[in-house]
Specification:
Elements lengths: L2 H20 L3 E4 L12 E5 L2 E9 L4 E5 H14 L2 E8 L3 E6 L4 E2 L3 E5 H7 L8
Parallel strand pairs: 3-5
Antiparallel strand pairs: 1-2, 2-3, 4-8, 5-6, 7-8
Length: 128
């Protein structure tokens, strides 16, 4: 992973941490997030609401995950019972947050288009 890409992703994660923290959530950033596919980047908890969030800051018309990563996200949600969300940050458009099950299977990946993420995704304030 390019160093600039890591910094952009880490900055996006910190942005969501700050947002949820200032709205009364307890937030945990997973150690090694972005390196292993075993855990989400963030965990956010508040009075019975629980979110596992995979954060992406990506400028493209679509967002894709290898099939193994998508399977790991779905299994994590199934085993823990915690809602697994993908947070996609797009410059000038902000965050689109959507459940992992909205990813569509392709030949080698699970993918969502930016148009679908904008249509079906929620803004962070919708999770409060």
């Amino acid at each position: 992973m390019a160093f600039g890409t890591y910094k952009k992703g880490a900055r996006a994660e910190r942005e969501l941490i700050h947002f949820f923290s200032t709205h009364g959530f307890e937030v945990i950033r997973a150690a090694g997030s972005g390196v292993n596919s075993l855990s989400p980047d963030l965990l956010a908890f508040k009075q019975g609401r629980q979110y596992a969030i995979e954060c992406k800051a990506w400028e493209s018309g679509s967002l894709s995950f290898p099939k193994e990563k998508a399977a790991a996200m779905k299994k994590w949600e199934e085993v823990t019972g915690i809602t697994y969300l993908i947070g996609w940050r797009v410059n000038r458009d902000g965050w689109f947050i959507f459940p992992v099950h909205l990813l569509e299977e392709q030949d080698k990946t699970f993918t969502i288009t930016l148009a679908k993420a904008k249509l079906a995704g929620r803004k962070p304030e919708d999770l409060l």
